[in-house]
């Protein structure tokens, strides 16, 4: 019995020892595997980045568990970093990761706009918040420009400028006073009707000598109508003490798709400084201004007639005579100003069909208590001269097609049916935008119809020599070509006014 009990007791003990050995081995192996995982496991970091680049520090094909990695995103020119996606939703350009698993991230970028700071001469300007040339900023960013002229100089304007057509045309948003706040607005790309995205603004301030302009009475930013989303304005320049002077109305150019009344301020001031005229520079809806419905050249004519009506209504305030109007304009404004007398019989509430004789123009502003019919008579009787400069008078490949109802060439009446006011038509011999042939053809057609017309061609002159912008080369053209041409225009207009005065 004793022997049997001993054997019975020994068997479990041996089995327990074996089991304990197995458990110890398992525990030891588990510890070893765990320790090896902590030491040997590696993880992958996958990063994608379009419209920018990403730097990684430290760089490696894979990372041991627990490694700290710093990644930094850099946007390409014209883009701005907007944040990370994937295994991080951070918005900082530089973030730190701990590699405890495989990670995938994407650097995201939004389209931005590059800021270039124009070099200032004859003054200084500051920009807040601070920005450096070449920086890319988000659309919707506001910058306040504060300008300080040097002694002997005055502010011309503070501005943002965007190139619309390479080497030819710019869109400018400017103010004649400082400080001025500009906004990087993605909608400004609408002015680039010839293609291309908005990728750069030039911002700055321009200064001119104190004696650049004489003393004038200025009434700026007069709103005359809001037929769409855009408030239509005009500026008035008058000699001090002006009273009952003839009124020159300037219609700006810009391919019907860019610019506003500001671009004609050089011409307006120079004409007003003659002391004989009150001068108004008007704006109108542009083809690309996102008005609803989209503006047409017929709408623009309605705006021109509306501006004329508003100026006539307030002529006494400006020192002008509403019964003596002279219309002028350049390029696209040449087409519109030329049409004011040509199309005056079609001012009315009827429909616009695009065809001659069945298209009517309802002014965007009509004085309270006045019928459109009475306004038609008032405008028709008040225009004493028309002086369109290098205007788009005839449809062509370069200018584009115009409806017959708004093409000046197609609307010239024979003098036996209706006598037009005298026309003074000019162009530069090197104008490749409109072309001398276009302007010559219009002048010849007026003459053939028995209408009074004077044609002037300036040897060596190109296009847009009446423009004034915060750009030294543009101002130089105005001073050397534009001013002499305006002297000739004034001589012509003075003779007309003198003749009318002598008949009274």
From TrEMBL:
<feature type="domain" description="Alpha/beta hydrolase fold-3">
    <location>
        <begin position="249"/>
        <end position="466"/>
    </location>
</feature>
<feature type="domain" description="Bacterial repeat">
    <location>
        <begin position="43"/>
        <end position="110"/>
    </location>
</feature>
<dbReference type="InterPro" id="IPR013094">
    <property type="entry name" value="AB_hydrolase_3"/>
</dbReference>
<dbReference type="InterPro" id="IPR029058">
    <property type="entry name" value="AB_hydrolase_fold"/>
</dbReference>
<dbReference type="Pfam" id="PF07859">
    <property type="entry name" value="Abhydrolase_3"/>
</dbReference>
<keyword id="KW-0378">Hydrolase</keyword>
<dbReference type="InterPro" id="IPR044060">
    <property type="entry name" value="Bacterial_rp_domain"/>
</dbReference>
<keyword id="KW-0812">Transmembrane</keyword>
<dbReference type="InterPro" id="IPR050300">
    <property type="entry name" value="GDXG_lipolytic_enzyme"/>
</dbReference>
<dbReference type="Pfam" id="PF18998">
    <property type="entry name" value="Flg_new_2"/>
</dbReference>
<feature type="transmembrane region" description="Helical">
    <location>
        <begin position="16"/>
        <end position="35"/>
    </location>
</feature>
<keyword id="KW-0472">Membrane</keyword>
<dbReference type="GO" id="GO:0016787">
    <property type="term" value="F:hydrolase activity"/>
</dbReference>
<protein>
    <submittedName>
        <fullName>Acetyl esterase/lipase</fullName>
    </submittedName>
</protein>
<keyword id="KW-1133">Transmembrane helix</keyword>
<feature type="domain" description="Bacterial repeat">
    <location>
        <begin position="116"/>
        <end position="156"/>
    </location>
</feature>
